Amino acid sequence: MGITSIITVNFNQPAVTVELLKSIRQHIDSEQVEVVVVDNGCREDHSDLFIDAYPGVIYVSSVKNLGFAGGNNLGVKHATGDYLLFLNNDTEVTSGLITNLTSVLETNPNAGMVSPLILYYDQPDIIQYAGFTKMNYLTCRNRNIAHLDVDSGQFDKITTETGYCHGAAMMCRKADVQSIGMMAENYFLYYEELDWCEQFIRAGKSIYFTGTAKIYHKESISVGKESVIKTYFMTRNRLLFIRRNTGVINTMIFCIYYLSVACPRQVLKYIFNQRKDLVKWVFKGIIWNISHDKNSLDLGFKL
To answer: Who's near 48: CB < 8 A, 6+ residues apart?
Structure first.
């Protein structure tokens, strides 16, 4: 088993990132890993803080906010491990995580990426992720398997192919990234890990879930508070994902559904919930796709 580079991105949450680093230090043998922290859009240098939490950490600073994909891609450029494990900074790890994830890649040559069982940190017996179903490209919807189910050990011995990995925790071989490419940075937020899985699948690789490894995610079960940035990028990127990963005919059919059903329903929801301020961002997300090439790096949004 080779060395694993753990890559995490910090965006103005140094205390949260420190807790992750302490968790890695506690549960994972330092001889198995190198740890890369990307300080994304940092307002100050947190290197001393992170080094104190995890001596030997590779600290990478970016003054510009590169988004989820860009921050992780920057981390890849500084990683030297045979395997890359991308972890959200608001996660905490468990013993055996590295061994069990790398085992999936080592014993399944067709495996391109793998994610562990993800449980909610505040409710550690509740499942956030145990795999995804495949995408319905006509609606750009899929299902999160076992989401909010009680963890009774039902996935402890299960390793299986799945639709997509979860961006909070996913591992791949560095060699595969070098041949397939890194995450598309024009998403900025949302859908980028799904798009990356599609890249791996087109290259002949399979996506795996394993319940033999697990992490705890500090995301709240009730997450989903609407905001301008979330509304814009969720609207924009759902259509962008279809444009990038399906053909012209499917894209046309999806657009009919999206423009006549999904988006109007979202607009009505915002009006009903007295969030009229978000309505224009639905239209802005649509207009971006009309006015921009699918590979454009112009986000259409001032951060």
So the answer is: none
